[in-house]
Amino acid sequence: MKRELAILILLAASPAAAQTADFRGADFAMQGGEAVYRGVCQGCHMPDAKGATGAGSYPALSKNPHLAEAGYVITMVLNGHKGMPPFRGHLTDRQIADVVNYVRKNFGNRFRGEVKPEEVKALR
Amino acid sequence: MDNNSSPSRRSLLSMIGVVAGSAAMYHAMTELGYAEGSAFTGPIKLSPPPRDTTVLILGAGVAGMVAAMELRDAGYKVRVLEYNGRPGGRNWSLYGGDTYTELGGATQHVQFDAGQYINPGPWRLPYHHQGILHYCRRLGVVLEPFTQVNYNAYVHSTKAYGGKPQRYRQVQADFHGHVAELLAKSTRQNALDQAVSKDDREVLMQALKNWGALDENYQYSKSIDSSMRRGFTVDPGGGIKSVPEPSQPSALSDVLQSRLWTAISAAHNYEMQSAIFQPKGGMGMIGKAMGKELGPLIEYNCKVTNILQDDRGVTVSYVDARGGKEARTATAKWCVCTIPTPILAQIPMNVGPKMKAAIDQLPYLSALKIGLQFKRRFWEEDEQIYGGHTYTDMPIATIGYPMWDYFSKGKGVLLGAYTFGRAAYIAASKSPEDRIKDALEQGAVIHPQYKTEFETGVAVAWHRVPWTMGCQGGWTDEARAVHYDNLCALDGRIVLANEHASRLPGWQEGSVLSAMDAIGRLHARVMNP
User: Fold this and answer.
1) Which of A78, A121, B484, B489 is deepest in the core (most CB within 10 A)?
2) By residue range, what is the domain housing residue B423?
C-alpha cells in the first residue's frame, strides 16, 4: 500500500498542466530597459506604470518609494512575490539591470544609483 | 459524529482523525480512495452536519460551486460570494454581444455571429476527468467530441521545409518510418544483440515493419504501404484511371532537423488522448448550469476585502465590485476560499504563517487565447481540416479549428492563438487590437486566406484578467515540495480549494478534486471539532 502510494505521488508530481505545447517560439530578445519594460512589464504594471485594480491590484511603479532600495526591486524581478511571477528564468542579468534602472529613473521616479548586471548575478 | 448507525467511510475517517491526528487521517483517506490528486472515485457523500452549520464560499468558479452544491446537499447552510456578475470563473465562453474589460481599461465588444464563441479559459474535458464529467452528467450539460489530433492539420516550423506547413500525418509517418528503418538496420547488423534476445529479434523486425510501414526490405520507401500512412500524391480512385500515385517521404535528416517531432509527441500525452469532450455551445455551459443549480445562494459583484476568523466563525468583508465603497460583511462558521492566489495574497486574512507563505509564493501563469471569426470555413472548404489543431513555432503556437457545425456554409471562429510563457507575456503587454493583428499576420503564413476572410476577433491575455491576474497556479516542483501541503491544509476555519490546490494545474478536474478533498476535510473537522 505504501509503495503504491509513493508511486501515485511520484506520478502526480510530474506536471499534468493544461499547456503541453512544448513547441512554441518566443524569446525575450528585447535589449535595453525601456524595451524590456514595454515588452514584458507593462503587461501588468501598465504602459504608464500606474498599475491597475480589479479583484486585486498590480502595484504602481510610478512614484513608488519601494523602488528606492534597488536590491529589493532586483529580488522582486528575480523571484516574484504575491502574484508577481519570477523572471529569473526569462531575463538575463543585463536585461534585469537595465529594466530596474529604467523604472527607477522614469515614471516620476528619481532614485540614485545605477544597478550593474553583477549585482543581479549576486542576488540570483 | 454523524447519526448513521453503521459507520460510513466518512465517519470512520473522522474517528481516525480524532484518534490518530490529521496526518494519519490523510494517509487513511488516501488508502480509502480519497487520495489528494487521485482520480475521481465517485460523488462525495457527506453525513448530515449539526443543524444550522454555515459555510461561506468565496468564488463561484468550478471549485466554489462544487463545494457549494455538495455542502448544501449534505445539509449545510451555504452562501457564495462572487466577484463577477456571472457564475463560472475561468469556465467561460465569449459570445457575440458580450463585453469584456481587461485590467488597464481596454474594452472589447465581441462581434461574433450567433452560434459562434471562443473559450478563453479551459476548453477540453479528457475522458478520464471523471469528476468534472460527473457534474456535466448531473446537471444535464450536453457534451460533444473534441478533436485534439487532426492528421490533416499542420505542423509548422519557420525554420524547416522552407517555412511551408507540413501535414501532421506526413511528419508522423516519416518520423516513425525512418526510426523503424534505423532500428531494423541495427537489429540486422546485430548491433542490438546485447539488448534483444534472438527470439525477440524476429518479433522486433515484424513489429518495426508494422509500426513504421516498412517495405519487404525493411526500408521506409516510397510505396503504397508508406502512403497508406502519409497519404498519396494521387489518391486511389474508382473505375479507369484510378491507379494511386504514392507520395515521396521526406529524408531522415529533414525530419530530424525540422524538430517538428516535438509537435507530434505533444499529442501523445495522457490528457490529449481520445476521447475528449466539450460542452455543446461553449465550455461556459458548465458554469451556467452550476450557477442555475445554486440560484440565489450566489451573491454576485462582491469584491472581498478582508477575511477574519476567530474561535466562533469567519467574517468576510466585501464591497460592490462595480465600484461601491460601502463595506458589507458576511459571516459563517466555516469558509471555503477559492480566490486565485495572486488576489488572495493581497487580501488581509488571519491564517497561519505557513499557509500565508504558500499563498504569497504562488503566482498565476501567463497565457493568451484569441478567437478570430472568418467569413467562411476555408480550413474545411479549401484544406479539408475538420477540427483539431495546427502547431507552429511562431508565437501564436496553436491554431484550433472549430469542432462543431462542420460543413456548414456559414462563418466560423478559429482559436487563433493559444500560448503560454514568454509569448503570452509579450502579448499581454500589447493592446487587444495589436494582439489580434499579430495573430492575423502569423496565421496568414499558414492560411493565406486569413488576409481576405477575417472579420472580427477577441483577445484574452490572462495576466490582464481582473478577477484572476493570470491563468493558473504556477507551481514548480521545488515550490510544491515546500508549500503545497501548507496551502491545502485546513487553517482554523478556512480551507482553500481551486486548481491551484491540486496536482492537475489548469484543469477543471483539479478544481473539482480539490473542492471535494477540501470539503471532505472540512466536514471531518465539523463532525469532530
Assistant:
1) B484
2) 94-122+365-464
Average pLDDT over residues A18-39: 74
Residues B304, B338, single domain; the answer is yes
Q: How far apart are the CA of B503 and the nearest CA of chain A, in angstroms?
A: 6
Question: Which residue, chain included where needed, has cell 507540413?
Answer: B166
Instruction: Verify that B200 and B344 share a domain, yes or no.
Output: no
Q: Which of B464, B491, B510 is the last residue of a domain?
A: B464
Name the B residues in 237-266 with CB < 8 Å from any A CB. Answer: 259-260, 262-263, 265-266
Other C-beta atoms lying within 10 Å of the C-beta of residue B418: 22
* Residues B349 and B479 grouped into a single domain: yes
Give pLDDT, residue B529.
83
pLDDT over 60 (residue B392): yes
B272 within some domain: no
Rounded to whole angstroms, how far apart are CA atoms B255 and B153? 17
What's the pLDDT at A7?
33
B6 vs B256, higher pLDDT: B256
The pLDDT of A46-52, averaged and rounded, is 98
A9, A82, A84, A92, best to mutate vs chain B, most B CBs in 10 Å: A82
pLDDT of residue A26: 67
- Going along chain A from its start, the domains and CATH numbers come out as 29-123 (1.10.760.10)
B425 closest CB neighbour out of A40, A46, A54? A40
Number of structural domains found in chain B: 3
CB B361 within 8 A of CB B483: yes
- CB contacts, 8 Å: B60 with chain A: none
Q: How far is the C-alpha of B77 from the C-alpha of A29, rounded, in Å?
A: 54
Interchain pair B397, A23: CB under 8 A: yes
- Chain A residues with CB-CB distance to B155 below 8 A: 23
Question: What are the chain A neighbours of B394 within 8 Å (beta carbons)?
Answer: 25
Q: Which residue of A has its CA nearest to B424?
A: A26
DSSP string, B366-434: PEEEEEEEESS-HHHHTT---SSEEEESSTT-EEE---SSTT-SS-EEEEEEEEEHHHHHHHHTS-HHH
- Residue B420 contacts A, CB cutoff 8 Å: yes
In whole angstroms, give the CA distance from residue A71 to residue A77. Answer: 10
User: Model ipTM?
Assistant: 0.87
Least confident of A16-25, B36-45, B130-139, B237-246: A16-25
pLDDT digits (tens, 9 = 90+) for B58-117: 999 999 999 999 999 999 999 999 999 999 999 999 999 999 999 999 999 999 999 999
B395:A44 CB<8 A: no
* B275 found inside a domain: no
Inform me whether the C-beta atom of residue B346 falls under 8 Å from chain A C-beta atoms.
yes
Nearest Cα of chain A lies from the Cα of B192 at a distance, in angstroms, of 31
- Burial (CB count <10 Å: 0-12, 13-18, 19+), residue B516: buried
DSSP letter at B104?
T
pLDDT mean over B394-411: 96
